[in-house]
Specification:
This protein is of the alpha+beta class and about 475 residues long. The chain folds into 3 domains: about 120 residues, conserved putative lor/sdh protein from methanococcus maripaludis s2 fold, CATH 2.40.420.20; about 110 residues, Elongation Factor Tu (Ef-tu), domain 3; about 170 residues, no CATH class. About 30% of the residues lie in helices and about 30% in strands. It is built from 8 helices and 26 strands. Strands 3, 12, 13, 14, 15, 18, 22 and 23 form an 8-stranded antiparallel beta sheet that branches. Strands 1-21-20-19 form a 4-stranded antiparallel beta sheet, covered by helices on one side. Strands 4-11-9-6 form a 4-stranded antiparallel beta sheet, with no helix packed on it. Helix 3 packs antiparallel against helix 4. The chain is rod-shaped, with a radius of gyration of 44 Å. The two termini are about 80 Å apart.
Length: about 475
C-alpha cells in the first residue's frame, strides 16, 4: 500500500512538470509573436516601395543642391576624343626676312610687342654690293634718258630738214627705250629688296640709300587665303578689342650688330585670330567622323583651363573642315581639323600695349562628336543619378522631401546621363541636379534609424509631407 501511494505521487509530479513546461512554452511563443507583430506594425509604411529622404534648407546648402524641371528633349549621342588648339599654317604665323645683305643697326620691337602692318621692326644698314650697284644703275639710266631725250629734242628739226640722217634718229630712240627698260627693271629690283617708292625716287635723283627699314608685312595677303567657311567666324569682343590686323612679335631672331643674309629670318610675327582645334581619333572612329563632316553636324568642344566668366560667350558653330588621311605611327591616331575664331583683349603697362588671346596654341580640348539621335529623352548631369547594383535612381524634390525614383539609363557620358522617358519621371517634375549619391546615403541612414518622414502620395505620384 505504501508503494502504491508513492507511485501515484511520482506520476502526479511528472504530469505537473509536463503541464508546466507546455504552459511556459506557449507563453514564450505568444510573447515573441506579439513583439514581432509590434515591430512590423511600427516599421510598416502605407507604400512599401515609397522611399523619401528629408533634407532641410541648411543641409541642401551644405550639399550645394540644385533642382530643375525635367523636360524631354531630343539628344545626340556623342563620342569623345581628345584634342588641342593649334596654329593654322600659313595664316597664324608670319616670318619676316631680310631683303638684302646688311647689318642690324637698330631694333624697334621686342617679343610681346604689338605691331601693325607697315610699322618698323628693325633698321638694316645695307652691306650688299649688288644692291648698291642696282641703285647706281638706276641713277645712271635716269641720267642717260635725260641726255638722249635732249639729243632727240635738239636734232628733231634737223632730221626733218634732212641735215641729220634718219638712221641716227632711230639709234637715239632705241637707246632711249633701252634705258627706260633698264630703269623699270632697276626699280622693280629695289622694290623687291624692301625699298619704298619714295626711296626709289630719291635714288633716281642721286640720293643713294644706305639703310632700309624692315616693316611688318600687310595682313591682307594672309587673310585672303582664309577658307570661305571661316570668313564669317570673326567675333567682336566686348573688351578693348584689338584690330584683326594686329601682329604680336612672337620671337626676334636677330641681334644688334648682327650681319644677316638675304632671305634670313629676322622676326616671327603671330596673329592668333584664326586657329585650328585638332582632334586625335582612332581609325575605328573614322566612320562616325566622316558622317559628321559630310552632314555638317555641330561639334561640342570643351576647352581645358578656360575661364569662361572673364570672356564673352563663344558664338560659333564648330564644324569639321577636313580629316587627315594619314595615321600617326606612334599614337596610331589621325587628326580632325575644326576652324576656331579667337577672342582677344589688350592691356597697357608702362606706356606699352600688350595682347592677350583667349585660346592659345597648345591648349588642351575635348571634342564631343554627334553619332546618333536619341529622341524624347531626359538629359541630366551625371551627379544627378546614383547607381546601386543594377538599379539607378534620381530624386524628385518637393520642399524638404526628396523622393527616390528608379530610372532606366539609355546612355552615359562623362558629364551627362540620358534617361528613358518611360513614365518613371513626370515631365515638369523638379529633379535634383547633383549630390544624388549623398541623398542616397541620407535615405539609407534614415531607413536604418527607423526615422521615416510622415508623407502621403498624391494621384500623380508626387510625395508631400503629411498635413
Amino acid at each position: 500500500m505504501h508503494f502504491v501511494s508513492k507511485l501515484i505521487i511520482a506520476v502526479v509530479i511528472v504530469l505537473l512538470s509536463i503541464a508546466s513546461g507546455w504552459w511556459l512554452l506557449n507563453a514564450r511563443s505568444s510573447s515573441q509573436d506579439s513583439s514581432i507583430g509590434g515591430a512590423a506594425a511600427t516599421t510598416s509604411m502605407p507604400d512599401a516601395d515609397l522611399q523619401v529622404a528629408r533634407l532641410n534648407s541648411q543641409a541642401r546648402k551644405n550639399l550645394n543642391l540644385t533642382s530643375q524641371q525635367a523636360r524631354p528633349v531630343d539628344y545626340w549621342r556623342t563620342i569623345s576624343i581628345p584634342g588641342e588648339v593649334k596654329d593654322r599654317p600659313g595664316i597664324s604665323d608670319r616670318g619676316v626676312t631680310s631683303p638684302a645683305v646688311g647689318v642690324i643697326s637698330e631694333i624697334h620691337v621686342y617679343p610681346g610687342n604689338i605691331v601693325r602692318p607697315g610699322e618698323r621692326l628693325v633698321t638694316l644698314r645695307l652691306f650688299s654690293e649688288y644692291l648698291q650697284a642696282t641703285q647706281t644703275q638706276l641713277f645712271r639710266a635716269t641720267q642717260e634718258i635725260q641726255l638722249v631725250q635732249n639729243q632727240l629734242d635738239r636734232l628733231g628739226d634737223a632730221a626733218l630738214s634732212g641735215a641729220v640722217s634718219g638712221a641716227r634718229m632711230i639709234e637715239y630712240r632705241n637707246e632711249l627705250q633701252r634705258q627706260q627698260t633698264l630703269i623699270r627693271a632697276s626699280r622693280q629690283e629695289l622694290l623687291n629688296r624692301g625699298l619704298g617708292v619714295s626711296q626709289i625716287d630719291a635714288v633716281a635723283t642721286g640720293e643713294l640709300v644706305s639703310t632700309i627699314e624692315i616693316v611688318a608685312p600687310p595682313i591682307s595677303d594672309v587673310t585672303a587665303k582664309l577658307p570661305v567657311e571661316s570668313s564669317a567666324l570673326i567675333q567682336e569682343v566686348s573688351f578693348a578689342n584689338p584690330s584683326p590686323s594686329t601682329y604680336e612679335v612672337h620671337s626676334l631672331a636677330a641681334e644688334l650688330g648682327q650681319t644677316v643674309q638675304a632671305g634670313e629670318v629676322i622676326a616671327n610675327l603671330s596673329n592668333h585670330q584664326y586657329l585650328y582645334v585638332v582632334g586625335h581619333a582612332f581609325k575605328r572612329e573614322a566612320g562616325w567622323l566622316e558622317q559628321a563632316a559630310q552632314n555638317g553636324w555641330p561639334i561640342d568642344i570643351e576647352f581645358a583651363e578656360d575661364d569662361a566668366e572673364q570672356w564673352p560667350t563663344v558664338q560659333q558653330d564648330f564644324k569639321i573642315r577636313h580629316l587627315s588621311n594619314t595615321v600617326d605611327l606612334e599614337s596610331r591616331t589621325f587628326d580632325v581639323f575644326i576652324p576656331l575664331a579667337n577672342q582677344a583683349k589688350t592691356y597697357d603697362r608702362s606706356g606699352e600695349t600688350f595682347l592677350v588671346w583667349r585660346f592659345r596654341p597648345g591648349q588642351r580640348t575635348r571634342l564631343r562628336v554627334p553619332v546618333e539621335l536619341l529622341p524624347n529623352v531626359f538629359v541630366l548631369p551625371s551627379d544627378a543619378v546614383v547607381k546601386d547594383g543594377p538599379e539607378a535612381f534620381v530624386y524628385r524634390q518637393n520642399g524638404d522631401l526628396f523622393q527616390q525614383i528608379s530610372v532606366h539609363i539609355l546612355y552615359e557620358e562623362r558629364l551627362r546621363t540620358i534617361i528613358a522617358n518611360d513614365g518613371s519621371i513626370t515631365p515638369g517634375a523638379f529633379l535634383a541636379q547633383n549630390a544624388a549619391a549623398s541623398i542616397r546615403r541620407v535615405l539609407k541612414s534614415q531607413a536604418a534609424s527607423g526615422e521615416q518622414p510622415g508623407v502621403h502620395v498624391h494621384a500623380d505620384g508626387s510625395v508631400h509631407a503629411a498635413h
